[in-house]
Amino acid sequence: MADAASPENVPGSQVSPDGPVPEGGGGGGDGSPRPDPRRWWALAVIALAQLVVMLDMTVVNIALPSAQRDLGMTDGNRQWAITAYTLAFGGLLLVGGRAGDLFGRRRAFIVGLTGFAAASALGGAATGPGMLFAARALQGVFAALLAPAALSLMTTTFTDPRDRGKAFGVFGAVAGAGSAVGMLVGGSLTEYLDWRWCLYVNVPVAALAVLGAVVMLKEPGRESGSRLDVLGAVLGSAGVLSVVYGFSEAESRDWDDPRVLALLVGGVAILGIFSLWQTRARTPLLPLHIVKDRQRAGAYLTMGLVTIAMFGVFLFLTYYLQGIKGWSPLKTGVAYLPMTACMIIGSTQISARLLRRAPARALIVPGLALGVGGLAFLASMDADSTYLGRVLPGICLTGLGMGTTFMAAIATATGRVAPHEQGAASATLNTMQQVGGSVGTALLNAIAAGATTDWLTSHRIVPVERTPQVEAALAEATVHGYSVATWTSAGIMLLAAVIAGVLVNAKAPGRQADAAADRTGADREAGVLDAPVSAG
Predict the structure, then answer these.
(1) Model-level pTM?
(2) Is 195 exposed, middle or buried (0-12, 13-18, 19+ CB in 10 A)?
(3) Which ranges of 459-508 would DSSP assign to H, the alpha helix?
(4) Which UniProt keywords apply (predicted)?
């Protein structure tokens, strides 16, 4: 892929292997920018906001069975409590990221947090499925403004390579473990309070983050003299929404259904027009050199596929533990704690420590291989499997692998980008994740449902008869559907590992920096040797 338009060749921007460096250096003695003395407090605020977004992606999974009974949702439309959020989030991320570049990332961060809290309060007060789905969609709208602003602020705040590695380790741990922590929080709130508190809890946390943002965050500047690409925003959002909605409809309809085909084909066509327009737009919503860069393209594709694989697994494992094993929401949430611990270890103790000394590919590919092994454990479960024998090894392997992968992939996806394009780069990464979540939920649900139906048909089970034998057969059929879908997830994750291994081929950032320093030193020495000697 071409790198001709990458930030290294953009005037007014010096780019190190670890990220952008403003022209002219800064206050550091070596010419590097002077670190912000409040940067670690800023990281705490940014991580808190990221945790809110990540928690909300999965906390509803735990609360969903209770919300379904309370609000009268059907099995067919219950997924919209999740899909409405990810549809709005994924569809508007490019717009949200670009808005942060144009109008200020700190402002976008604060507005996104405030709106997210208000939408959460609305969802907690829902009186019916429609109101809940609308509130979830509204959460997605404000999350689309918040998430790219958070990642952009972190990228522009931490310019020192060593600090940057530590910051990305924390951010990767939050991104990876946030989903699992959401299971515990959701279980605790559902069991001891009410499922509505899974939404209400966002209000005080967001308020704390807003207060921290006002005090601790600095506005890194915004792009001046540019306007929002309105046509690009309409085309990009419409294309993403059409594709994701097409996958969602495929769960309840056949894949050859005219509506499903129209949505999928139409969405791809609109995205094609969007890409063509971005080559002609004066101020494109997504500058195409961002995604043409080989390293970033590999990271984007990897994160998208991994999210497809993981998002459905969380849902299936939750229903397995609660529906098949009869566990309470709290016990289910506690069951995910080892996975959270392994994600934190993988991100902060493995990936963050090795990222400057090892190529990103050397972290991403082994991490994904561990994830495939963990999914294989989970896919081999049956109705009688034990937590210690199957679930625990599976989630620990998966957690360790995802923690290692996420940190390296996020650093690769947002590195070597000019400061004024950080919002677009961050939004593209978040878009791949959110679209992957929607596609994963819809696609894997359809696969699981189809496999369950095929098992019942092949065993000539009539679900109408509720005898003990039929109940046992239904449980076995359901677990079989989960197993087929999880094996599919393992295959998708294996594909992600192959793509990362082929595309993400950059050297270790530390080695690149050392080589650059050696060249600079050699140039200086040559300059001294070649300089004319004064006659005195």
Answers:
(1) 0.75
(2) buried
(3) 468-503
(4) Cell membrane, Membrane, Transmembrane, Transmembrane helix, Transport
